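Good morning C.,

I know you're traveling, so I'll keep this short. The sequence:
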Amino acid sequence: MKPTMQDVADLARVSRATVSRVLADSPNVSMDKRALVLDAVEKLGYKPHKKLRPRYQLLVCIAPHQKADPFHTHIIEGIQAAVRTHRLKLSRLQLQAFSSRPPQRQLPPSMAKAIAQAQGLIILGNLPLSEEHHLYLHQNGIPTVIIHGTGSSQLCSYVGIDERRAMIEAVNELVRLGHRRIAYIHGPEDDQDHQERLRAFKLALLSAHLAESLRMIVQAKSWCQQGGCEAAGRLLTTFMPSAMITANDLLALGVYQAIKEAGLRIPDDISVIGFGDLDCANDADPPLSTIAVPLRSIGGWAVAMLYNKILDQDLKPVRLTVPTVFKSRGSTAQAKTYTR
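The tokens, ready to paste straight into the viewer:
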């Protein structure tokens, strides 16, 4: 009788999954275990069957507010590219609503049905998942990675942006240019995904001793260009900032419009900084200074983390904080002095 993979596992005193990973040349196996498995393979004369790697099914659940976020498309593109690289299957579920009300372990029926068909779950955006929800996923063997959301559960992994560092870098750049009156346009209040970005901006102001600028924080009603224009228009009726930072690049384009409608110029009168480095940033007039975020890479990293967890359930959840890069373009310049 030909030796089996279980025979190899028994001789090496490891699991079948570990044998499978060694034979697939996975990096997620220690050198000691790899040596034991290869030694057992040689002693038994085991020859693995040549077959395609199983195509695990991943599910991406998109939070209700996330689809309106311009980051959404680029993160999904990164997920799709990584899925092709790892020969996985992918399905998407756009959630229309989500409630954390009791019973806490009950997921929306559409989500529960889709999860039952998958081996791994990516949550894009912030869902009000309770610890009971996380425990339910854990007990049902569904590895989970949350992208661009909040939470403190130790049962799932997270990929997020280093919001604090990004905002401190942007504010410091403006301070270096002499700006002391820095406004901020943030997104809809009920979108929890970006509340950390708002907190990071406030911290950056306080760190730069610019507490007076806290009065110049305006909420946009939507994430689109029109939302940015309306918010900046309201701001300019009361204050005259020397610079504005926005929670994404589309809002910044709306700020451009409001500034021009007020008879002012960018960056001569007001400097503008966006967030995200979307395609529209470089095409703006003048080109938009912005905080660049590797959105496609975020999607790819989430898939890689999830795939490795599927292969090795013993891997501990991780929290990956992605750094950003400030890109200076034509929308920022030395500050002018205003008396208004």
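Safe travels,
E.
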